[in-house]
Every structure is written in C-alpha cells, then in structure tokens.
Design brief:
The protein is an alpha/beta fold and 374 residues long. The protein has helices at 11-22, 70-80, 97-100, 115-127, 132-144, 154-165, 192-205, 223-234, 247-253, 272-282, 300-309, 330-338, 361-370; strands at residues 2-8, 27-35, 43-51, 90-92, 180-185, 211-215, 237-240, 259-263, 287-295, 317-321, 343-347, 356-358. The chain folds into 3 domains: 2-51, no CATH class; 112-165; 180-370, P-loop containing nucleotide triphosphate hydrolases (Rossmann fold). The chain has 13 helices and 12 strands. The strands form 2 sheets. An 8-stranded mixed sheet has the order 7-6-8-5-9-10-11-12, sandwiched between helices. Strands 1-3-2-4 form a 4-stranded antiparallel sheet, with helices on one face. Helix 5 (132-144) packs across helix 6. The longest helix is centred in the middle third of the chain and has 14 residues, at 192-205. The chain is elongated, with a radius of gyration of 32 Å.
Length: 374
C-alpha cells in the first residue's frame, strides 16, 4: 500500500485534494490538526492516505508471502505510529482502524473486480498450460479495458483476449476443375489415418465432392487394410503408392477428382532421413495443402520439437488430435502462435466422420480456458 500525507486549511479542502489525486479508491488512514512552519503557525488539517496498487502491479502478487494481509499491516501501523510531524505542533485525533478500514473481503462495489479475481484468472491460464508471455498479453488487454471490467464480464473479456490470439483457417471444399491434393503428416500414433478417413467422409457426405484417398503408409501393419475397409464402406476410391514409380499412374487415375487425401507414414521427428524420404515421395504429387497433426496430450517441449523438425514439409496448418484424451489445452495456442501457423481441425474421438471439428477461434478459446470440450 502506498502512503501519503495531504494538508489543507480545512478538512473539506483536504478531502477534495485526496479525491482529486487518488480517486475514490483511496483509504484515509489517519487525520490530525497541525500547525504550519511559518511565523503565523496557521492550523492545517493533515490526512494520511493509503492507496492500493493498480492492476499493472499484479505481477507483484506472487512475491508476497501467502499469509500477507494488507489490512492487518495497516492496522498495526495505525496502532504503533503517531504520524507526528516533528517540525510542527500537533493536536492528535484518535482514529479507530476498524472504522477507517473496510472489512476484509467486502467491497463497496460487489461487482468490482479485485486482485484476487485477476490472480484466479492467471492461475486458470497457468493450469491450462498457457505460456507466461501469452498470459502477460491477456493481462495487458485487461489493463487497457479495466474501466469496463466487472465480476460479471471478466471471463468474457479473458475469452475475447484469448480468441484474438488464435488464428484459424479452413479447407476449401468446393468442386475443382482439377484434383486438389491434401496431405496430413506427423509423428507416429497421432491419428493421421483416422483423420484422413474423417476428412474424406465429411467432404463426400456433407459437401458432395468426388473424393479419393492415396496411402503411402505401407510400413505400418494393418494400415492399408484399415483404409480398404473404410473405402469399401464409404465407396471412396483408394490407391496405394508403394514407391515413386506408382505416383504417375495414381495422378492419372485421380485426375478428375475434386479432392485427394494423401495418408503418410508416421515417423519420429528425430528421424530426419525418414522424414526426407516421405517428403521426396509426396513431392511427386501436386500437393496444395499440408497439415501437421499432433496429439494434444503431448508435452509442450515435445510439441515444439515436432513443429520445428516437421518444417521440412513446409506445412500450412495444424490439426490437434485426441482432445478427448487431453487434460490441458493451452499448448494448441502456444504452438500456433510460436510457429505462426493457423489451426484447421480438432479431433476428439475415433468415430468417423463425427469426431472432427472445423477450428474456430471462439470455440478454441473456450476449450483452453475451461479445460473442457463443451
């Protein structure tokens, strides 16, 4: 708490000076009559004023001990300090701290936000693994809009701040004069094949497009069989590229398709040789969009490593998978912002085609802040 003394010829003038300099949030800690230092010894009214720090000083919260109590501290000061000016003669006025200070946890305005409200917002964002530098941006936004904030709209302002930082994009699902190729890359086990099946199903069923699937995942046991079963059920054509020599014939057969989805083999981001082999094979196809898929439950450090090493594919957007298995979702924003890449889809289960969601910034903001899918 900041302490300052204000003097004026009358109590009314002193009070007006307090309001003018500190506003209505100032707390009067003490008052007394003093004499001026000039030869006339004019009587003056002196007010001792306390002022709570502004929102911009919130970062200091964590530096105080957990049991820190500003009310108790000020009460002690009032009981132990006389605030006597050694250069003036003074007439003490007895002040009861209980009457001067507002009661704990009671605000004159029940809707006015407090430091505790802001601290709770910070704690929620931290729990959901939002980067500290992003939290700072959100706090700066709240500071700029502090005159508009109250307990009823604080969460709304936080969500607006989060949403403004989330960049999304969409897959063009219109009919094309020539086949548009889209591929999904990513490490092993993130759900690329299931994701490809979902995208193929929704673009055919919901948008009426002529869709094909190409698989180059000839290494994983059962991968081709899985897609063959899906192909037969959904009546979506499937072709397999076992090596580069198969690609020209595939392009020829699928030349009249609207969309062709290419399923790639999963490889560790640390295996640069295998990543380059995949790149060489898909580079023979007229790929227009490359999506990088990552499991939402992956740690921030691993996600950043994946995003960095998969740059070899020059990916255009991110797909975050397995949200139904996730606990905290802040890394979706962390990765998207740090690698300046929009989010295109989220997946939240194994059901085809239901468990895939087109990315929207407002929706993702709610998922991140609530830690829930709905």
């Amino acid at each position: 708490m900041k302490i300052k003394k204000i003097t004026a010829p009358t109590l009314k003038e002193a009070t007006l000076l307090v309001k003018e300099e500190f506003g209505s949030d100032a707390i009067i800690l003490g008052s007394k009559v003093v004499e001026s230092n000039d030869k006339y010894h004019t009587k003056l009214f002196e007010l001792t004023v306390g002022m709570e720090p502004d929102l911009q000083e919130l970062e200091e919260i964590d530096e105080k001990p957990e049991n820190y109590d500003p009310y108790e501290e000020v009460s002690k000061r009032l009981k132990t300090e006389s605030f006597t000016n050694t250069q003036t003669k003074s007439e003490e006025i007895t002040i009861d701290p209980a009457k001067v200070l507002p009661k704990k946890n009671i605000s004159l305005d029940p809707y006015k936000i407090t430091k505790q409200d802001i601290k709770e917002v910070i704690d929620v964002l931290k729990y959901n693994e939002v980067d500290s530098n992003i939290i700072k941006v959100i706090m700066d936004q709240l500071q700029k809009n502090k005159k508009l904030l109250n307990k009823n709209n604080l969460e709304k302002h936080v969500l607006v701040g989060l949403s403004s930082l989330i960049n999304t994009t969409k897959l063009n699902v219109s009919k094309n004069k020539k086949a548009k190729y889209v591929t999904v890359v990513g490490p092993t086990g993130v759900g690329k094949t299931t994701c490809i099946a979902k995208l193929a199903a929704i673009t055919k069923i919901l948008h009426g497009l002529d869709v094909g699937i190409v698989s180059i995942d000839t290494y994983r046991l059962g991968a081709i069989d899985q897609l063959k079963i899906f192909s037969e059920i959904s009546e979506i054509d499937l072709l397999v590229a076992y090596d580069k020599s198969d690609v020209p014939e595939i392009i020829k057969k699928f030349k009249n398709k609207d969309l062709v989805f290419v399923d790639t083999v999963g490889r560790s981001q640390k295996n640069s040789e295998e990543l380059n082999n995949i790149k060489d094979l898909i580079s023979m196809m007229p790929i227009e969009q490359v999506y990088l898929a990552m499991n939402t439950s992956t740690s921030k450090k691993a996600m950043f490593d994946i995003a960095e090493r998969f740059k070899v594919f020059n990916y255009d957007a991110l797909i975050f998978t397995k949200l139904d298995e996730g606990i905290a979702f802040g890394n979706m924003l962390n990765v998207s912002l740090n690698f300046a890449t929009p989010i295109v889809y989220l997946t939240n289960g194994q059901t085809i085609p239901d468990d895939i969601i087109a990315a929207e910034s407002d929706m993702i903001a709610k998922i991140i802040y609530s830690g829930k899918l709905n």
